[in-house]
Amino acid sequence: MSQKKPEKLIDKNDVRNDGRGLNELRPLKIEVGVLGNADGSAYIEQGKNKILAAVYGPKEAHPKHLAIPDRALLRCRYHMAPFSVEERKSPAPSRREIELSKVIREALEPAVFVEYYPQTSIDTFIEVLQADGGTRCAAITVASLALADAGIPMRGLVAACAAGKVEGRLVLDLTDTEDKGGEADLPLAWMPNLNAITLLQMDGSLTIDEFEKVVNMAVEGCKQIYGLQKEALKAKYVAVKEEVEE
Amino acid sequence: MDLPTFFERREIVTPGDLLAEDDYVAGDNTYKEDGKIYATRVGLVEYEDRKVYVVALKAFYAPSVGDLVIGKVVEVGLGSWVIDIRAPYLAVLRASEVLNRPFKPQRDDMPSILDVGDLVMAKIIAYDRTRAPLLSIREPELGKVKRGQIVEITPTKIPRVIGRKGSMITMLKQETNCQIIVGQNGVILVSGGSPKDEQLAVMAIRKIEEEAHTSGLTDRVTQMVRSEKGGVEHVSEET
Amino acid sequence: MKSQTMVRVKQKQIAQLVSIGKRLDGRELTDYREIQLEVGVVGRAEGSARVRLGKTEVMVGTKIELGEPFPDVPDQGVLTVNTELVPLASPTFEPGPPNEDSIELARVVDRGVRESKAIALEELCVEPGKKVFVVFVDVYVLNHDGNLIDASALAALAALLNTKMFNYEVKEGEVEVKPGYTPLSMRNYPIAVTFAKINDKLIVDPWLEEEQVMDARITITTDKDGKICAVQKGGYGCFTTQQISEAAKMAKQKAGELRKLVVKG
Questions:
Q1: What is the average per-residue pLDDT within A112-124?
Q2: Which of A4, A207, B30, C126 lies in the 20 to 30 Å Cα band around A56?
């Protein structure tokens, strides 16, 4: 069952199919501390993306031969629910999920003080409940909050956002349709306080000049998302404080 | 002389927030890089003279020698027990730190002293990052937990349960008529005359945990406990 | 994955040298190791190539078979890239199903070929929606001495350029083989260039011990027009935007040099 492809993805006034401007993020909703059993958790909705992250740890690494003598082992599992996409996806990990689990882990690790907890493991589980493009970025955004919610010391939060090129224009935060029909998609993760890129991938076709512009666009998108991450982390405490200290 | 700081005292900060620069000293839950001090956890920032630190709103327990902890036995070994003290590392209680005589495997039955699932109050006698924290229950008030209820809260809020100069915990013990033993690892043992008294203490502790970052807490908790008790006394008067 | 057996003294030595613009094997920061390329090394494959990049050795074989198209592109042939990190290639490779490193390698090589539209896939359609030709690119890593990505991508491109398809005619939806061969129709020539970051400096073509010391790597694949068609950051460290720009420009330049080894004329 394939969908009918829309005629155009962006109209002549630079308005995208979902009504957004070229440099606009999809609507975001973030909640921290949503799961009772996990040490830390967070949930994000970004456009039609719905993603949940949970963190367990630091705890003693099992099996023991995986433990690293001088730091914690960070493990990450990115997984899509069978009902998350248009055509049912098999629950078994696909090659894409395996690659994404790796790059997401590599995007989060620079932020975590793994050297404080030798011989332990910190496990991050990401479940994509509904997918519409840019899931690896939303996954990083929400996983970094779950790590902070678990009380794991971090160098900073990691925010992630994709940018790209669709119908000749440079755009921010592509949907699945825009990614499939466009010329380039570039997911990027950013640690704002250290000015550092921790995830960078690209597929498509861009001149070097366009590439630099798209990277900068994605970084600006990350900065906006970072503001929302901070608010979400503080939200619970701010609400209690306001209610109680009047 | 004003040094650059970027937040007000007791403002909520998040990991990566720039707290201060240059000559400040990096205290708890912060780190310094390139002359800048950032928070590592969500919490309330405090500036004290030249030191900046963060009182974390949520963090797991970091074992420290001398701490009283309450843990659960997860494994019985030959000559030692493995105890879960809600820290990244499991703790070890050796038989020599329990019995006041040398341990003889043929005569002593380990599980009859402490079995899997038992709760135990212990003190941390040794800990460095290279091996498991070591416990002891030799002191008189330590040992197996025989009665009462357990409340688990995030360890960073334990100081609030105790209060300045013990003001909060003293009030709680008086008002609820319960014995309250506070483990530094965030586990609190409450034991009182009746389950109702214990429940009241548990409620109060939960409220402290939820509102730990606010001011005027001791008064509000006292008020809540008294008004709840008012209900209980009313019922017993009727009988 | 950091090696725990590598002597720390050597680690320090490599890092210190890099910060003064030198490398242990005498190369400049932007030099590739010596590259040897052979094509047509495996008779039974439709196309094949072997690349030696320093001591790293990769062999690629291609095979073309009939198969079904993807539902969203019913009139195009299919490309599928597979890699094997053969256990004899390194003490760190274990037998078993592909691990994350093997999968990442395959997908990065695939991305370069696919996004640059190197193969004229629309010429591989037999019956739209039903029958197309599938191009299998199998990458075999025979010796791991660092920078598997660039070696594999180069060998894959060379193997594809070496690939010949049997001539055929479509009669009533069936493929009828005819005498003779035609080279696989190739339109672009993607080249991957990988950088390692050590002590905040970028070095091209890291060998194994440099990879064990590096804190991150970035691979930039460019096509024959100098356009970027794939990017992949790896490793536990990070990059600044300036470093990324620097890498992109250098990658375009180095790719031009490497392309000459594979594409004659």
A1: 95
A2: B30
